[in-house]
Amino acid sequence: xxxxxLDRYPELEAVADRRVAAxxxxxxxxxxxxxxKDTLLFRRTRLDEHLARRAEAAGVDLRDGVNVxxxxxxxxxxxxxxxMGKEFRGSxxxxxxxxxxxxxxxxxxAARRVLRYxxxxxxxxxxxPNDVIDRRMGIDExxxxxxxxAFLETGFVGYGWLFPKDGMINAGLGTxxxxxxxxxxxxxxxxxxxxxxxxxTTRLRAFTIPTTxxxxxxxxxxxxxxxxxxxxxxxxxxxxxxxxRSGEHAAATAERAVVSGRFEKDTLEDYExxxxxxxxxxxxxxxxxxxxxxxxxRGLDRPFAVKALLRGAMALA
Length: 317
Ligand SMILES: Cc1cc2nc3c(=O)[nH]c(=O)nc-3n(C[C@H](O)[C@H](O)[C@H](O)COP(=O)(O)OP(=O)(O)OC[C@H]3O[C@@H](n4cnc5c(N)ncnc54)[C@H](O)[C@@H]3O)c2cc1C
Prior knowledge:
By secondary structure, the chain is α+β, with helices and mostly antiparallel strands. The chain has 10 helices and 13 strands.
């Protein structure tokens, strides 16, 4: 799914830390399968900076560093405020506040109550020289052997990853919340097994990741995009490409709403329609997560069986 970033937004290659050609998957720290997967790896600050400059070039009046604490709906618009005197008024609000933002908490919580599984992850992005990353991961840029690595373990619903960036390694581990106890300890073990146990882990961060698109992606004068709308791949935790796509659909809908002066159901439901393909694709991924979690819990833990499954199933991941 990440590969579509390149198909859709080739200009992003210039912003990426690295472009790798494959994903190398391991089971119990033994390499099982390498699958071609043309992938851009970003340092998030660089990507955000690029998107912000692009938005400004398109005429956006960007105000950075304002924390939205209040939202008021009036008969002809919506006002947001930081609770300390700053206010901004518009016709339509696009909520891009991420998975765990405080905005419209009830609306988002209602969608997640029905979920069987939620994903919790820990991630560390730490400085590491490129030659050290390449040596430890076995990457040979000169021979064109570039990849990122995924790590599965029998009996564990989740995966670990190593994303080689430019002078940075991004290492993480994600699982379903019911297996989340002791995730940090497991992560330290993961770093040890992959040879990255000398990283500075003081900036280790924990996240929960949504695994469902909101059943309703709009409220009067509001659209939900990116993680705030739940546009995340439940199998991999990836959400950048889908988030950008949802933003494009929201922009097209917002334009129509502004031109027609209508900010209610008849116009905003267009956004639902435009996102329906994306929703379908992500539902399949959620079903995949349920299948994977169910199989592991039912005891699919024999390495030879899991290896066979991985060799067959990686094409879908
Ligand atoms: C551990 C981890 C690893 C991941 N790895 C990948 C990957 O390899 N590939 C991939 O495609 N995706 C990955 N993802 C998912 C990806 O990070 C998200 O899908 C993506 O960041 C979603 O972008 P977003 O802009 O919707 O939300 P966010 O990136 O969460 O941005 C939301 C922004 O809104 C701001 N905000 C929140 N509340 C307010 C408020 N009240 N007022 C003002 N601002 C507010 C926040 O400060 C933040 O800047 C990963 C996620 C995690 C947690």
